[in-house]
Amino acid sequence: MDWATLARPEIFRIQPYSPGKPIAEVERELGLRDVIKLASNENPLGPSPRAVAALAQAISSVHFYPESRPPLLRRRLAELNGVSPDQVIVGNGSDELIKLLAETFLRPGDEVLLPAPTFSEYEFAAHLMGARPVSVPCRDFKPDWERMVQAVTERTRMIFLPSPNNPTGRALREEELISLLSGVPPAVLVVVDEAYREYAEDPLYHRDSPRLLTRFANLVLLRTFSKIYGLAGLRIGYGLADPAVIDLVYRVCEPFNVNALAQEAALAALDDEEHLAASRENNRRGKEYLEAELKALGLNPVPTEANFFFVGLGRDCREVFRALLQRGIIVRTGDIFGEPEYIRVTIGTPEQNRRLIQALAEVVGGGRR
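Below the sequence we write its predicted structure tokens.
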């Protein structure tokens, strides 16, 4: 049986996601120890101690199903963001919410606008539902909201707008976001992915975006616990939107989509302001250090509002990736984003950052340090 002939034709347009290489795999393959991973934008400080304690307490109850549409977490998130609980949806990572939005609103032939380069899951979701992703080139690696408005057609049903953008780290300002929302038809859903919002330092960043929900019913905000909260392995994220949008998306959502441990850890992490502050400060200091050192090596780091740098190398990224791998450092190649002379590197601990710079000096700077 040729099963491919029975599969939905839309899936053959999907490029399988290529995750960053795990530490254990690299250590096995290369016989290395003390490998560091600076490829997936995880919090180098790890999860909140409060979240770890909550996990330990909850582990004995995993024989029960988790709460569906978790009311405690939705209420807490609503309280923190100044919205009502019926404006909150919780997902198995914000990745699931991207897919659920596509399953809810996209039909074959619809168009979905997204910046280029950007996170691959937006294109995946569009292809899955038979919609056509339309890439709008960034301007200086920043999502070009003006060109996005101009690219809207009668077929446009959704816009994915990550801010800060992955992999470039650049973000929109609040006035730019408002201009985009004001410039598109109200029937076009604008999905603003704020996965890295907690790291943004620009005072004009759209930090209070939930208040825009009352003005723009077509706005959806996506957030995650995978980045600054350090809970990537538990897979939990959330979205904020008009209650009618939330109700429709929950219709296609699995009843127990977020596991019980993730719910408890997320609730605990939200209350740990000390861990959040430490994570922000580590990132701020690391950003200053890496930007200066990368430039000193003759490299071109894109200004970032996130916890990573997109770094222009002036040479093939795969060669640099392999050389760094041999030195026990995992980074992300830019070719998967259409930028073959760039790498994306997560801002790590001070020790990890120094080790990265030393390795890059050996690889691209002739050992100069």
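The mean pLDDT is 95.
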